[in-house]
Specification:
Blueprint lengths: L5 E5 L5 H14 L4 E5 L7 H6 L5 E5 L13 H20 L4 E5 L1 H6 L5 H9 L6 E5 L5 H6 L2 E4 L20
Parallel strand pairs: 1-5, 1-6, 2-3, 2-4, 4-5
């Protein structure tokens, strides 16, 4: 790829990770190498099973099986976030990947598991031929400023409002 861009998928609506995974499928279908680094996702999501079957896509998950709350993070949460970010940056700089997805990085930033300034500087230093996608609610303004594309998912209606719980194969 001659020119890789920075994309941010944010907002309170559903579909940020799904959009990033769709892009990963498109890229892999064109022979591109993809690295997906998931922050704070150590649960059994359906994509974990599917992505193992697709050539050219590498998935790395970090975090614990416990939810993290802003201001109540444990030391392990900071450690896992740092490991995830380091993995993504190493992949981005390695020359091995055309597309690097930092899934839920925005949430890790919102929970202050990583410093916004450091993250922005590292992302700005990406090789020019690597596409970077960052997902998660509450993207910081500093990331939005350096992004070439920003998409905000807005919730208008959601099954949770009717008491419908997350469904296997659809929400997870």
């Amino acid at each position: 790829m001659a020119k890789g861009l920075i994309q941010v998928y944010t907002g309170d609506g559903k579909g940020k990770t799904t959009a990033a995974l769709g892009l990963a499928l498109r890229a892999a279908g064109r022979g591109m190498k993809v690295l997906i680094v998931q922050f704070m996702k150590k649960w059994d999501y359906g994509e974990l099973h599917s992505l193992k079957l697709i050539p050219n896509i590498t998935l790395k998950t970090f975090g614990t099986k416990e939810f993290v709350s802003k201001g109540k993070a444990k030391e392990i949460d900071y450690e896992e976030a740092e490991k995830a970010f380091s993995c993504g940056i190493e992949g981005m700089q390695s020359g091995d990947y055309d597309l690097v997805i930092f899934d839920e990085l925005n949430v890790a930033l919102y929970y202050e598991l990583l410093g916004v300034k450091e993250v922005v500087e590292e992302i700005k230093g990406k090789p020019k031929n690597v596409e970077v996608v960052i997902t998660g609610r509450k993207a910081p303004e500093e990331l939005l400023e350096i992004a070439d594309l920003v998409t905000e998912m807005r919730e208008i209606k959601h099954p949770y409002q009717k008491g419908i719980k997350a469904r296997k194969g659809i929400e997870y």
